[in-house]
Amino acid sequence: MTILLSDERVRAVPVVESGEPLVRLPRSLSPAGALVRAGLADRLMAADIQLPPGIRLRVVEGYRPVEEQRAIIASYAAQVRAHHPGVDDVELARLTSRFVSPVDVAPHVAAAAVDLTLVDVCGEELDLGTAIDATPEDSDGRCYFSAAGIGADAHAHRDLLASVLTRQGLVNYPTEWWHWSFGDRYWALMTGARHALYGPVAAAVAA
Ligand SMILES: C[C@@H](N)C(=O)N[C@H](C)C(=O)O
After folding, report:
1. Who's near 51: CB < 8 A, 6+ residues apart?
2. Does ipTM come in above 0.95?
3. pTM for the whole thing?
4. Hey, where are the domains in the chain?
């Protein structure tokens, strides 16, 4: 059974902030220059060199300011309401958290998560079954890491991604094949760590 980011068990995980700085990923790994915690950056670089020749990781997003997280929540919650008329507020929050995290436990706001994919030598994205940020509604559930209804290549590419990232200690959010994190509260719950390493980062600190 999938544990969502809105689950009380995630919120119950304590954070013992390590104070680890944010670093900008190299452009070869993240043309957008995503910012992440130093420990996550090291793990991503280690995962990248484990890939077969001709395949690289491509990180499209890392740290996200809290205002941006709030804006994504508001926008997607409105879409969920339109798709699921009549849901109460509790169910709305649960359904919304399949695609975007509540602010207080948000892995991107802690600079502890990345959205990423695989690219070939020309920088072209490989087939992972859906676009990054395809919602459950738009993709008919194919955004879930273990979804049926995607091709053999997409399955193989998701498995390849998982093999190099889990070896570095990252965990996937099962409703989004592209979302991987390290050191946040969701990661702590999933790995059995006693506490999270990284809490929310203020925009002023990230600047
Ligand atoms: C909105 C989507 N790209 C995303 O980042 N989702 C995760 C679960 C999050 O909000 O942390």
Report:
1. 57, 118, 160, 164
2. yes
3. 0.97
4. 8-66+105-134+141-191
